[in-house]
Each structure stands twice: as structure tokens, then as C-alpha cells.
Amino acid sequence: MRTIAIVNQKGGCGKTTTVVNLAGSLAADGxxxxxxxxxxxxxxxxxxxxxxxxxxxxxYEVLADEDGRALVNEILVEVDPRIEVAPSGIVLSAxxxxxxxxxxxxxxxxxxxxxxxxxxxxxxxxxxxxxxxGLLTFNALRAAQEVIVPLEASHFAIHGVQKLLETIALLTxxxxxxxxxxxLPTLYDGRTRFARETLAEIRGLFGxxxxxxxxxQNVKLREAARRGVPVVSYAPSANGTAxxxxxxxxxxxxxxxELTPTLQVVGDAEEIEPRRVVVSFxxxxxxxxxxxxxxxxxxxxxxxxxxVSSDGSTRVxxxxxxxxxxxxxxxxxxxxxxxxxxxNPRVETGPVGERNSVLVVQ
Length: 362
Ligand SMILES: Nc1ncnc2c1ncn2[C@@H]1O[C@H](COP(=O)(O)OP(=O)(O)O)[C@@H](O)[C@H]1O
Ligand SMILES: [Mg+2]
Prior knowledge:
By secondary structure, the chain is of the alpha/beta class. Helix content is 33%, strand content 26%. It has two domains: 2-259, Rossmann fold; 264-361, Sandwich (Immunoglobulin-like), CATH 2.60.40.10.
């Protein structure tokens, strides 16, 4: 299970909207998703059609005492065949006080303990956080391997985010585990120059930490929340559905990259040398994808055989290289723009500061 906390101490930047609609889009693609509502305001609970006043128990019961973790399966509410919710309630705001006397370490491990008790398997757990970095957010970060920070692209919210990233970095040291942190531009209004400039600034500052997906302002997202369903079920052709679909694709692509390594070596090592090496690049929007590296003198697609196929709405480029054993560096040229391989975690910084993907042929 990939546990992703959606964090930003600023209210109104799209945390809850992201949790609910990313859950909807991942589920629409076939994933099983658990939504964990750690905000006492219970907005995610409400936006998934549950009245927090009507639930018999919520996360407070699970987190408030040592033995509560076992209750986690009893509080879950199914809102869709592939989405379950661990609901919140206003009482959750009393948790900090309730646990004040406890040792700091134990206090922040309540949620991770509860998730360890889950009876059913999920592909993703998405944690909605309150608009502050207190005990509830610490619990979320302790339980997560990944963090998404929604960042409103229509206001100058960047300073606050840098503070938040510092806090997360400090926390990562204390937690003793790495968090993969990514920035999601939200509430984007491409009609204003100010928003376009802010988005460019966000991309310039955060580079690869930024998702390619951008969430545009879209009234259907508000309407869907009021109806208590993810936008994908309420307005399948809305911009909000397309944007959260693109985000889900990027989020899911990270698991695909882990599960199916991009580098497959074809052929028998004993007999064939050099070897055929296949790297693939997936993108729904790209028109032209080439590869360049030290194996072809950095000339895009020189000495490379290309194949294009499609996987649903996504096009897949396969680049077939003929390489002797050794270590190689490469980049893709996507519609004229150079970029590293998004599916290859091995990256090295080159002589002029560019980031090259690394490929080892054994
Ligand atoms: N992309 C968007 N387009 C239009 N309205 C949005 C969008 N994202 C969020 N909203 C609305 O803005 C308000 C704040 O968003 P929300 O997700 O609740 O933020 P947070 O959880 O960070 O406080 C909500 O009313 C929500 O419906
Ligand atoms: Mg919220």
C-alpha cells in the first residue's frame, strides 16, 4: 500500500479536493483506495457523502487510546466499490489535548499503528490533513511514504511552502524515514497572466518536485463536493476530471515504474554482445519522443530503433539500443524539450548541471 499524505498548513489550497478527487480517479482506474480524514473539520468525509454526525465512531476512537488501533476496521465506511473512508469528526480536535501527557514518540505513532491493523488490502491510502502542522499532521507524516503539497497557483503562496518543506525535511530526520515530497499546482486560472507567471515561478523553483499535472479552477469540483461524490462520477467530461485523471496517472506511474523496471534486457547475455536494450517512455500528450546519450554522441535517435504503440490513451515509445556492457547516460527529447527519464530513479548531474538518467548494461 502506498500511503500519501496531502499536506499544507494553509487552508483553502485544495488539500481536501485533491484527496477526494485523486481517490475518485485512482478508483476509476481500478485501484482500491482508503481515504483517511485527519482534519477535525471533516470536509473529506462530507465530500464523500458521509455525514460526520451520523457515524457511530470515527478516527478519534482509533487514535485516542493505545488499544484503539484495532478499531480501525470498524469505523471504515464504503462509499464506492473501491473507496473506503476512515471518517473524521469535530471530536478529533480534542486529540492533541488528550494525548498531551504521552511521550512524544508514541503520540505520533498512533495512525501508523492503526494502519498496521487494516484487514483488507488497499493500493493507496490518501490522508487529508488539517490546515496546521500539529499532532494530526505529524501522525500523517509518520504513516506516509509520500507527500503531496497542493500549492495555489493564483496567489503568492510560495514562501509558506518553503517553510513547510523545511519543516518536512526536519521531520524526516526525526522520523527516520524518507518522504517523497511533490508539489501540485492547484486552483490555476490560465486566463490571467498573474497565474501563468506564478505557475512558471513554481516550476522554476521546484523543478522536478512539481507534478506535470496542474489542477485548473473548475466549478464542477465544488459542485461535486456538495453532492458528496468525486468529480469523476459527477461530471466525467469536466476539466476537474481531466486534471485529477492526469494526476492519478502520474501518481500511479510511480508504482508502475517500481513494479516493472523500464529497462528490460532482451536476448541472451552469453551469446549476444552487444546487447539489445529496450527503454520505454510513456506520455499521453507527447507527439515526438527521441533519446540521446553518450551511446549515440548525444544526437537524438541516432543509431536507435523506435517503436510507438498505445496503451489506452497513453502512447508508449520503445527505444531499442544496441549496447555493450557498461554505464551510459541519456536524456529524452520530448517535443523538442530535453528531460530525464521520469521512470528511471537513477539520475546523475552532468558537467553543466543537467540531470542525466543512468543506464547500466551488464
Ligand atoms: N480546482 C478548484 N476549482 C474550483 N474550486 C476549488 C478547486 N479546488 C478547491 N476548490 C474549492 O476551494 C475551497 C477550498 O478547497 P479545499 O480542497 O477544501 O482546500 P483545503 O482542504 O486545503 O482547505 C473548497 O470550497 C473547494 O471546493
Ligand atoms: Mg481541507
